[in-house]
Design brief:
This protein has 18 helices and 14 strands. By secondary structure, it is of the alpha/beta class.
Amino acid sequence: MKISIIGTGYVGLVSGTCFAEMGINTSCLDIDHKKIENLKNGILPIWEPGLKEMIKRNYEKQRLSFTTNFSESIESASACFIAVGTPPDEDGSADLQYVLAVAKEIGQNINNYMLVIVKSTVPIGTSEKVRTTIQKEIEKRGLDIKFDIASNPEFLKEGSAIEDCLHPDRIVVGTDSERAKEIINKIYSPFVLNGHPIIHMDIPSAELTKYTANAMLATKISFINDIANLCEIVGADINAVRKGISTDKRIGPYFIYAGTGYGGSCFPKDVKAIIKTADEHGYSLEILKSVENVNNRQKETLFHKAKKHFDGNLKNKKIAIWGLSFKPNTDDMREAPSIVLIDKLLAAGADIYAYDPVAMKEAQRILPENINYCKTAYEAIEKADALFLVTEWTEFRILNYKLLNNMNNKVIFDGRNIYEADELNKNGFIYYGIGR
């Protein structure tokens, strides 16, 4: 069996590699010639634990290939996955130009029956737009080629994407034909040996499922951050409150850790998109609008704590930043809380010294030029007036107090609540957490 993956971003590259790992002949296509040549030479556009080794293994065994030739990629393929980006447009809606451009290419190049699977996160109705676009291009060629459309949203978490792909807790598929369902079941049969289900449904429901899942998780994050802010006002501890509610099976322990807000490529974009979809249909998702507002406010929390601590004067203060990526185990800087924090600190006149285990190259592309990037975490805090823990990489968990004593001012702003205030206070540090 051969499949084609169109788009070698996070979803396409991880999914394609995992399909190849399961023994499926997988062709990954991208229009970026340099990216494809880099992939052939083992140079990846993203950092994901274990991905480089898996790509190398499957590429050498010729189960995984990379190309810029569209017709070559989809030739003799049983299925074609559309996995290109859907960035937010200015009004918050998902930009579908790349998805529909791929659909047009498929219609211009398809010669035999094929199942076209939309894996990109797209609003309700997109799969039908893809179907219409492909059909128009086939008719322009004067041909009558049958094809089916399916929606198969991804649920990969950056930092654990390979595990999520190889051992999914569920596979959601929207189809409207038995033939499409049979092909999907065959493709995913190696992935569901763990007993977790392929959940079949209609196409619009599948499209909405992905947005609903991410919106729910984003809601949990904003909710606990809102409660954390209340904890500070009334003198409660969010860690204690979290433990008190997490044992309730209806709530659970996941996604209720207070912090500096969510970021990344999915939650911010998908919350905006589902809000926009509802608005277009004359319905206002008031809870999700509040979720977005709380998250935007939460990204400024550490800055306001620092401004208060330094009596409103951050000018020429040396600030150490630990962690730049939006979460650990990725170099993804999209919508990262560190961006908002650093912009605020720079505007207040602070000098920034930053360290991240893997995201500094990406950060240099996104952040202002006047950032000092350090080779180690403790180089960043040398003579620093404050330390901000922004991303909870494991190497930051245990503090070296001998090296921390090289700070000018012993003050730590913990944006992920990974340190204990009592321990830091005993060692002469002033500690600020979130909701504590």
